[in-house]
Amino acid sequence: MTRAISLHDVSKAYTRGTRVVDRLSLDIAPGEFLVLLGPSGCGKSTVLRMIAGLEDIDEGRLFLDGEYGNDLPPSDRDMAMVFQNFALYPSMTGRDNIGFPLRIEAPGTDPAPRVDATARMLGIEDLLDRFPAQLSGGERQRVAMGRAIARHPSAFLMDEPLSNLDAKLRNHLRAEISQLTRELGVTTVYVTHDQSEAMSLGDRVAVLRGGVLQQVGSPRTVYALPENVFVAAFIGTPRINLLRGLVRAPLDGAMTISLGKQFLRLPEPLSLDHQLLRVQQGREVIVGLRSEAVRIAKPAAARTGEVALTGLVEHLEFQGHEVLVHFDTGSRPALVPELEAPRPAPGRPARRRRREGGTVLERLRERAGALRAGPVATAEAPGRPDPDPGPATATAEPRLPGDLIVRTTPDIRLRHGMQVPLLVDLAHLFVFDQHGRRICPSPDRLPDLEE
Ligand SMILES: Nc1ncnc2c1ncn2[C@@H]1O[C@H](COP(=O)(O)OP(=O)(O)O)[C@@H](O)[C@H]1O
Ligand SMILES: [Mg+2]
């Protein structure tokens, strides 16, 4: 009824030399809801299609319930796919769309009882006699789900099934999918580029970047203990604040992380995690502060573990129940290239290097771009005009002003240009090394986060 899916060092290249999936290993338990999450083009659909048997596996092995499955034809895998574009037969009614695969699988058997039972389960009985053109987007996707469910497959493979729907419907169907797949207890691999969808649906989330698995874990774990700066930046809204910092650990004084014009003074006695930062003395690091790690309050209000900063209000984003305040704290933001622009443009790093000599971070960024792997962040001074705006300046999301975004309640009165006291909770401090790997909280610490 439900099955285990395992990928062992699976790779795929469409053109020679460029792996779009690179040595991916993943064990999906029977009945588990696993989400494959990553930006567009990172290989999610390719992974799903390899599991379905629609795409050959170049290297590595696929196991279905422990049995070698690389060469199994798709029809023998007993899996049902649901796609983004609904993929219904336009000339068939809802009933026939749902019943069609059943007729193919078991010719001569009347599909009606299963079609009716599925329609009842999905609450789409009244849609069965309509044609796809007579259905709304959400209704079509329900029929498509019905077609997948009616087959009683051993696994569901869903490729961005909600992407074409409006936000309200998406939330609604998200809850339905979650409930249905759990009721049915069928292993589900769900592909999305939407982190909030991944977090709300998955038992576990597997984060992919450039065909390389970055981390797999429960939503809580990937949020609270991201293994690298890419995962940290990809998961969570508003996006984690990433600032370039410099660790200073004098033998005879307090340890600090300098953030350009200000610094974070690590409270004494140093926590174990902060002690481990000592080896970074004199090195550049990336400081990660989620919006909940910073609050607007005077230094006198500091609780244990909180240290003071100040920020200049640059921009206010009113969201109704809260306000996102963009502060300039005089620090330099670290950028995660893939998350700033659709693709790191070739050519630009070379121009930068000539002009500026090239920092370690920039060189690393180039190297990682070449490898399509290895997490790396980079940094740019905010607001610095680029005299030679190449294609790389066409960013997906225009960069917002300020280097630190803080959430606050709408009743706090703030104006553009105000200097505001901030408190940073160092219990929520992330530090990543120059390669983007998390070094604080220490990777060796094993807090009991998994359910
Ligand atoms: N049939 C194909 N032929 C050549 N390249 C492909 C093909 N399908 C996908 N690709 C490329 O492989 C990479 C991964 O694609 P895909 O798995 O569709 O990513 P995602 O689903 O994460 O957006 C992309 O760079 C894409 O352009
Ligand atoms: Mg895709």
From TrEMBL:
GO terms for cellular component: ATP-binding cassette (ABC) transporter complex, substrate-binding subunit-containing. It comes from the Bacteria. Residues 370-382 have a biased composition (Low complexity). The keyword Chaperone does not apply. Pfam families: ABC_tran, TOBE_2. Residues 336-404 are annotated as: Disordered. InterPro entries: AAA+_ATPase, ABC_transporter-like_ATP-bd, ABC_transporter-like_CS, ABC_transpr_MalK/UgpC-like, Mo/tungstate-bd_C_term_dom, NA-bd_OB-fold, P-loop_NTPase, Transp-assoc_OB_typ2. Keywords: ATP-binding, Nucleotide-binding, Transport. GO terms for molecular function: ABC-type transporter activity; ATP binding; ATP hydrolysis activity. Residues 5-235 form the ABC transporter domain. Gene3D superfamilies: 2.40.50.100, Nucleic acid-binding proteins (2.40.50.140), P-loop containing nucleotide triphosphate hydrolases (3.40.50.300). This is Sugar ABC transporter ATP-binding protein. It comes from Streptomyces pilosus.
